[in-house]
Amino acid sequence: MQTRTTARVVGTLFVIATAAGVLSVALLGPSDHISAPHEFAKIHHQVAAGALMVLVMAAAIAMIPPILYPVLKEHNEALALGYVVARGIEAVLVLPAAIGPLLLLSMASPQPQGAPNDPERFDYVRELAQTYDTWGYSASVVFFCLSVLLLNYLLYRSRVVPRLISGWALAAVPPYLAGGLLVMFGLLTTSSAVNTLLILPLAVNEMVLALWLLVKGIKPATVRV
């Protein structure tokens, strides 16, 4: 695959992953708002669409590293492989965000032959979904931040994109990671304004990188690392 095509595909995947992630949050929201099976069943289509967006996001995340790998390995093969692994783990950790709501949806839907829903089982699965909101999200943040560090270190040293973009990403990792850890320890929620402010710089940076790749592509490297 030519470098120009690689840049466009990767830029598109970054946009898809971000858009799908934002839509999934808007459609699903935190699981603590769910109070009963019959209420959850009323938003069947919204939950199904939200879970689909999570799967789209996970697929886009998983596709980016293999496409970028041939470019990155020219600068440091070990770090390029580390990027592939980190994003792969992140994609796996994102999947429960779709599985939990789909399980709840299945349990909240009318049962065959008129069998009643089981509120106790529903509550148990809901608690698991709420646990993911805290631990699963934070774990995925850790591997996402690791992948950002690996990718943008290579981009910064090789200058295949402007150093302003890659340097911005490196500087934005600490607040993003801090937000994930604060959520893990119960000091913030994923939907809090503070957490949004912490993740915003890196989220915007990723879109800037995506647009650069779509418009300008990848420049020939000036430094090998």
TrEMBL record:
<keyword id="KW-0812">Transmembrane</keyword>
<feature type="transmembrane region" description="Helical">
    <location>
        <begin position="194"/>
        <end position="215"/>
    </location>
</feature>
<keyword id="KW-1133">Transmembrane helix</keyword>
<feature type="transmembrane region" description="Helical">
    <location>
        <begin position="48"/>
        <end position="72"/>
    </location>
</feature>
<feature type="transmembrane region" description="Helical">
    <location>
        <begin position="168"/>
        <end position="188"/>
    </location>
</feature>
<dbReference type="Pfam" id="PF14329">
    <property type="entry name" value="DUF4386"/>
</dbReference>
<dbReference type="InterPro" id="IPR025495">
    <property type="entry name" value="DUF4386"/>
</dbReference>
<feature type="transmembrane region" description="Helical">
    <location>
        <begin position="84"/>
        <end position="108"/>
    </location>
</feature>
<keyword id="KW-0472">Membrane</keyword>
<feature type="transmembrane region" description="Helical">
    <location>
        <begin position="7"/>
        <end position="28"/>
    </location>
</feature>
<feature type="transmembrane region" description="Helical">
    <location>
        <begin position="135"/>
        <end position="156"/>
    </location>
</feature>
<protein>
    <submittedName>
        <fullName>DUF4386 domain-containing protein</fullName>
    </submittedName>
</protein>
